[in-house]
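Repro:
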Amino acid sequence: MIQNVKKILAPIDFSVHSMEAMRGAMELAKDVGAEVHLMHVIAPHHHFIPLPLESNAEQSRELAREAAMIQQAEEELARIKKDDFGDSKNVFTFAVVGHPVQKMVDYAKEQSIDLIVMATHGRSGIEHALLGGTTEKIVRTAPCSVLVIRSRKQ
């Protein structure tokens, strides 16, 4: 199975955990000769405040905020690609605004991703209930296999 992996998606939220998982994806990709797709998803503010209730000025501010965050994420992904991957032609970067789980699943389908390598923050209890379980949701809905990297305790 591992030898059939040609495209690996490594979602990044720029946390220590996701950067560790990205390094794991990079090592695996080198071993099997796969592409690595680095993806950052920005959750929209209107995910919490319905757009019809916002004024035009609030909507404009939100669009400007999202555009600035996309630009910042694209710059950081480009830096990571250059510094950690030597600007490899087998590394692709993508930043988008939307619901993180849905955007990752859609991207995996569109790009025919073979494996998603991602981190878990290891939250439990009320913290898990409040902040959600993005990794858990990806494992349940992804169109491909998911490798979950759990951070080592310091």
